[in-house]
Design brief:
- The chain is α+β, with helices and mostly antiparallel strands.
- The protein has one domain: Aminopeptidase, CATH 3.40.630.30.
- It contains 6 helices and 7 strands.
- The chain has helices spanning 13-21, 25-32, 38-46, 93-107, 122-130, 153-201; strands at 6-7, 54-59, 65-74, 77-84, 112-118, 134-138, 141-147.
- The chain has a 7-stranded mixed β-sheet, with helices on both faces.
- Strand 4, helix 4 and strand 5 (112-118) form a beta-alpha-beta unit.
- Helix 1 packs antiparallel against helix 3 (38-46).
- The protein is globular, with a radius of gyration of 21 Å.
- The mean pLDDT is 90.
């Protein structure tokens, strides 16, 4: 996958909450199928089980979660919920998140993937159709299903490599962000020092 997708852990809840609260109200409605306020979003984030479920994310250069997919498992099936922030769409983030979740589900011996969304959610409908999902539409809501191939050595090793690459990408972005903060602090300090010199000479 061209977009590094990282599996997320328990400590990412604050970043997840920030991601969802940055979505416009209409995007929240499309993501959850209903209107969600801040309290409902916080309750949803707090209720995610990172042991049984899987959450994947894509970070930008400022370490902000630009896209998230939550795979909730039940028996031999999994349900996906996916969101990408405005300004980051059309860059392959949604498709990469979906592909990563599919591969993980295969490796957990899931046989069927499921997505429920409003039929007007054109972005998710596009991903579903492109992925070959069977789509059923009824009264403005859509259910999409995908039968998964069994796990094999390629899918198992592929997921391991993808996670390592994503972690390496995150480490590089963290280092770059730290260097930017240091450079900005030095620039601000130099500007403040110059200002003080100017005042004392006036």
């Amino acid at each position: 996958m061209s977009v590094p997708v990282q599996r997320l852990g328990e400590g990412v809840r604050p970043a997840l909450l920030e991601h969802f609260t940055q979505l416009p109200a209409e995007d929240i409605r499309l993501r959850f199928g209903t209107t969600f306020g801040p309290e409902s979003i916080a309750k949803y984030v707090d209720g995610i089980d990172f042991d049984d479920d899987a959450v994947f994310g894509v970070y930008d250069d400022d370490l902000r979660l630009t896209g998230v997919v939550h795979a909730a498992f039940s028996g031999d099936s999994a349900e996906l919920g996916l969101s990408v922030l405005p300004g980051y769409r059309g860059k392959g983030i949604g498709s990469s998140l979906f592909a990563r979740a599919v591969e993980h589900a295969r490796n957990r011996f899931v046989t069927r993937l499921y997505m429920h969304c409003l039929s007007e959610n054109s972005a998710m409908m596009h991903i579903a159709k492109k992925s070959g999902m069977t789509i059923c539409i009824d009264t403005g809501e859509a259910d999409a299903f995908l039968k998964l191939a069994p796990a094999d050595s390629v899918s198992l090793s592929g997921e391991l490599v993808e996670q390592r690459l994503a972690l390496f990408d995150y480490a590089l972005k963290t280092q770059t962000a730290t260097l930017r903060r240091i450079a900005k602090s030095l620039d601000d300090g130099a500007a403040g020092s110059t200002g003080s010199d100017d005042e004392s000479s006036s």
